[in-house]
């Protein structure tokens, strides 16, 4: 289409490309208990120390992970049993701690109306009372 009109005149000059904003994620609670490790990660804790003793010059995390994965696959169910037991024990402990955490969260849900901590609120109330006493 030689000599044709450019498409710019037909478009509305006020339109801009819309930029999609990412949804705002809820902030993670730093007091929330961490999830318990699986049996493999319990095994990894022990394996890392053994691997570092045998290979002190190895700095690669990937090499440790790869060696641990191969070792884990080669273990029989009987050899994996102690790690599975430890993982189950940690899971039970986690469930207890999580239950207490959830209970605490449910109790404190109505109290947390502002961003200020209780000490800040108490400090402000205390300073206002001090000013009234001074008059």
Automatic annotation (TrEMBL):
InterPro entries tied to this protein: HMG_box_dom, HMG_box_dom_sf, HMGB_plant
Major site of localization recorded for this protein: nucleus
Domain of life: Eukaryota
PROSITE patterns to which the protein is assigned, alphabetical: HMG_BOX_2 (PS50118)
Regions crossing the membrane: none
Segments of skewed composition (Acidic residues): 122-135
GO biological process, one term: chromatin organization
Localization terms from the record: Nucleus
Domain HMG box: 33-102
Pfam family, one: HMG_box
Biased composition (Basic and acidic residues): 68-82
GO molecular function annotation: chromatin binding; DNA binding; structural constituent of chromatin
Segments of the chain annotated as binding DNA: 33-102
Region (Disordered): 1-38, 52-82, 98-135
Sequence similarity: Belongs to the HMGB family.
PANTHER family, per database record: DNA-BINDING PROTEIN MNB1B, HIGH MOBILITY GROUP B PROTEIN 4-RELATED
Protein name, UniProt field: HMG box domain-containing protein
